[in-house]
Amino acid sequence: MARSAEVTRETKETNISIGLKLDGSGLHHIETPVHFFNHMLAALARHGFFDLSVKASGDVEIDAHHTVEDLGIVLGEAFKQALGDKTGVKRFGRATLPMHEALASVIIDFSGRPFLVFNVDLPKAKVGEFDTELVEEFFVAFCNHSGANIHVNLAYGDNLHHIIEGIFKAFGRALDEATSIDPRISGVLSTKGKLE
Q1: In a domain, 11, yes or no
Q2: How many domains does the chain have?
Q3: Mean residue pLDDT across the chain
Q4: Is 152 part of a structural domain of the chain?
């Protein structure tokens, strides 16, 4: 069974289409008007070994908030759809990665019960034209629409670009582990018999 998804979302603020293949090689084609975030999504795909295509437009003349948040919504829905009933899926994933002076970790549980813990003290600042507070907004949207419990922790770091990129690379690696199939798992990895 192909573990893939195609999801679109069109509102008065954004128009987003995402194609996702879980068992890919990291191929990606990202087109959004938020250039720094394109770089983060490319890092996620490459380090998670997902094939990912993203095409988005949004009201960035206001700011990038709606576009980044809706990208979290649509990507979360794509992962939920691609995982299906989660038969054989490892469910849990974790990664800790350095990015120059920064050290970030992401831990994921595709439990079906969304919750985000975001232990990253980012100042309200910009990286290029990107508002740093949108990183947390993206993760909130992803959790709520994928049904994942995610903990994002920053051990240390100074450079905002390095911190955010380290988080997204760790996110990709943790997603790769959490979504992979383990032949030892019969049904779903839960004593309840279902993940929802």
Answers
A1: yes
A2: 1
A3: 95
A4: yes
